Structures are given as structure tokens and as C-alpha cells.
């Protein structure tokens, strides 16, 4: 049995701890808000009518993830939002959402807007994926 780390007293390597676990707090009494995950892609006539680019309606061909979070009785100034490559962390005085994202995203190029009439926070994140035989464009 060999220990791969340089420090033999460590229990695990930092690579083994899932991203976002530092945000997970089981003792936090705030409830989780309702949320919805949508996938968005930009298509043109060459996609819809001719199928020239090979895009299909699956999530493998989507460029953006849109997360809609219902935040009743919340003001825009009360929202704290932190986006990592694979984790969305949203906190308000009454609600807390730690969401592990289905795909890695570009955390630097996201957009968020708060629709105050509907009390919904809408977060749009660009999917960051490696190009393969499915998503080659």
C-alpha cells in the first residue's frame, strides 16, 4: 500500500473532493427555492430547414443553460450569487440554493437578471465543453 501524496497525514487529495462541497452546509435552516433548468441553443434556417450543421434538439447541442429561480418576497439587493465552473451558489436571507450544474460552464461570461414583478432570478450561463463528434461547431 502506497500513499501518493507527499504529506502522509492527509486523508484525501484535493482532486478527490468534488467542486462545490465547500458551500454545502447541512445545518443551514434556510429552505431551497423552486428552480427550473432550461437549455438554449441558437439555430438558423440552415439548422431548422436543411439540417446542415448537424444540430439536434438534445442538450448535447445546446450552448447555454438558463436557470430560473423563484424568490418570493426577495429584493435584488438581498441576493448573493456565486458561479463556479460546475456549481451555482445562491443565497438570500430566507433561501439557499447550491446547485451542481449538469455541464461545466464559463463562470466569467454569465448573465443574471431579476424579474421583480414575477420574483424570479434568471441566470444564463455559457456551456464550456470540449468539441467532439456531436458538438463540433
From TrEMBL:
GO terms for cellular component: cytoplasm. GO terms for biological process: axonemal dynein complex assembly; flagellated sperm motility. Residues 16-26 have a biased composition (Acidic residues). Residues 1-26 are annotated as: Disordered. Residues 32-127 form the PIH1D1/2/3 CS-like domain. InterPro entries: DNAAF6 (IPR026697), PIH1D1/2/3_CS-like (IPR041442). It comes from the Eukaryota. GO terms for molecular function: dynein intermediate chain binding; protein-folding chaperone binding. Belongs to the PIH1 family. This is PIHD3 protein. The gene is Pih1d3.
Amino acid at each position: 500500500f502506497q500513499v501518493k501524496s507527499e504529506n502522509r497525514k492527509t486523508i484525501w487529495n484535493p482532486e478527490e473532493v468534488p467542486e462545490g462541497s465547500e458551500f454545502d452546509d447541512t445545518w443551514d435552516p434556510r429552505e431551497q427555492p423552486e428552480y427550473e433548468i432550461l437549455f438554449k441553443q441558437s439555430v438558423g434556417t440552415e439548422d431548422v430547414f436543411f439540417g446542415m450543421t448537424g444540430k439536434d434538439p438534445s442538450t448535447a447541442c445546446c450552448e447555454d443553460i438558463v436557470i430560473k429561480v423563484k424568490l418570493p418576497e426577495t429584493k435584488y439587493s438581498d441576493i448573493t450569487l456565486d458561479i463556479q465552473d460546475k456549481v451555482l451558489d445562491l443565497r438570500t436571507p430566507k433561501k439557499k440554493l447550491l446547485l451542481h450544474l449538469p455541464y461545466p460552464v464559463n463562470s466569467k461570461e454569465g448573465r443574471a437578471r431579476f424579474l421583480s414583478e414575477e420574483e424570479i432570478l434568471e441566470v444564463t450561463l455559457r456551456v464550456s465543453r470540449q468539441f467532439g463528434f456531436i458538438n463540433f461547431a
